[in-house]
Specification:
This protein has 394 residues and is an alpha+beta fold. Helices cover 35% and strands 21% of the residues. It is built from 10 helices and 14 strands. The protein has helices spanning 39-42, 69-75, 79-82, 87-90, 101-105, 156-193, 199-231, 243-256, 279-296, 354-364; strands spanning 20-21, 27-28, 54-58, 64-67, 116-123, 129-138, 145-153, 239-241, 264-268, 275-277, 301-309, 317-324, 368-373, 379-386. A hairpin with a 5-residue loop joins strand 5 (116-123) and strand 6. Helix 8 packs across helix 9 (279-296). It is elongated. The two termini are 37 Å apart. 29% of the residues are buried.
Length: 394
């Protein structure tokens, strides 16, 4: 951190100094910044209070000379109570076993080769968890510690991530259990009693096994897509895509699956610009949106395809696809959560990951996707893909 790169202070200036009062009544350091450490000390012209994480700095005597606003918020300790006090008193930390952390790590009297402590979960008074990392600033390698710089972060974001991962594992495990149980049961029955079944019975059981195996394959594909989207590694193989033909293919597949032909209405407004996109990923987006409209919506499903300005681009063309139905629609309070993980409509079923993946695919193409209430009262999804360019030119 930049704190450790400032020039050494003269020895007579390193003793802890009393906190002063700011005009607004809050505690201020001797430099008036409210932290005990000035902009020049940081070497960046940055006020420590501008930092998003908590920053605590102790001098060579072990007394706190910097305690920024984020540190005060995270620890629920005022600056006036921290500046000038010993580090272990101003910031009393314990490990998860209840042992005093500063006594264990001993930054000033420990190994001279140690440069700090990696981030770890520690406990504040009252049992509140905080993420803490520390850096020991020395005048020279193996020399005495001149400063101890401590970074503090709340654990809320990490807990949300861990909870999201746990929910993902639990959801997928639940969804996998049913088809795998079916596959195991039917295959075991066929192997044990093959001669007892008629050809029609065998065909029915094998078709069920095939359908359940396909469901497992789709679930695994969803997991891989989420992993790639979250890590920013979703690969696109751009090729010319006829979006109108792709929509027609999906409608024919739904009709072959038992939907009435007159349930679908396609409106294509041309001429459409040439679209370079990943055809498999575009099929995923269309398939998911149309399946949602059929499963959760009612009445006629309208698909409108039209040219549109590409999002965030000057004078670049794009293609907009709108899918709407005449069902009950999505409640206003749920609009902001539609594209999050595990969101499901009024009818249960599925993993609730499809629209999250759809949004990730569209945004990976440089496009946008929105949800609104359609003219018929149902849900209306609209995504725009920029024309883009061939993969070999990207």
């Amino acid at each position: 951190m930049a704190v450790g790169m400032s020039s050494p202070r003269p020895a007579h200036t390193t003793a802890p100094r009393a906190a002063e009062e700011k005009p607004d009544g809050s505690a201020a350091g001797p430099d008036g910044l409210g932290t005990g450490l000035g902009q020049d000390d940081l070497g960046t012209g940055l006020d420590p209070d501008d930092l998003p994480d908590g920053l605590v700095v102790a001098d060579e005597s072990g007394h706190v000379v910097c305690f920024n606003a984020a540190a005060a918020r995270i620890t629920a300790t005022s600056r006036a109570d921290a500046i000038g006090r010993p580090l272990e008193t101003a910031l009393p930390l314990e490990d998860l076993k209840g042992k005093r952390w500063w006594a264990l790590t001993d930054p000033y009297g420990g190994l001279a080769t140690r440069n700090g402590q990696p981030e770890r979960n520690l406990l504040l008074p009252g049992g509140r968890e905080v993420l803490v990392s520390a850096r020991y600033v020395r005048e020279r390698p193996t020399g005495p510690v001149r400063r101890v710089v401590v970074s503090l972060r709340g654990t809320e974001a990490r807990r949300r991530t861990e909870r999201s991962h746990a929910e993902l594992i639990a959801t997928v495990a639940h969804e996998l259990r049913s088809p795998l149980t079916s596959v195991k049961g039917f295959t075991a029955t066929l192997l044990a009693k093959w001669e007892r079944f008629t050809d029609d019975q065998k065909r029915l059981m094998l078709e069920t096994v095939d359908a359940d195996a396909g469901r497992v394959t789709r679930l695994i594909a969803e997991l891989l897509d989420i992993s790639r989207i979250d890590s920013g590694r979703l690969e696109l193989r751009r090729q010319p895509v006829d979006i109108t033909a792709a929509v027609a293919r999906h409608i024919q597949a739904l009709i072959a699956g038992g939907q009435a032909p007159d349930r679908f209405r396609v409106r294509a407004r041309g001429p459409l610009p040439d679209l370079w996109a990943d055809p498999d990923k575009v099929d995923q987006v269309l398939g998911n949106l149309l399946e949602n409209a059929v499963r959760h919506g009612e009445g006629t499903v309208t698909i409108e395809i039209a040219p549109a300005p590409a999002p965030g681009a000057n004078d670049e063309a794009g293609t907009a696809v709108t899918v709407s139905d005449e069902g009950p629609g999505i409640p206003e309070e749920s609009m902001s959560r539609v594209f999050t993980r595990f969101w499901r409509g009024s009818k249960r079923g599925g993993t609730g990951l499809g629209l999250y993946i759809v949004k990730g695919i569209v945004e990976a193409h440089g496009g946008t996707i929105t949800v609104d209430r359609g003219p018929g009262g149902g849900a209306e999804f609209r995504f725009i893909l920029p024309v883009s360019m061939p993969a070999y030119l990207v």
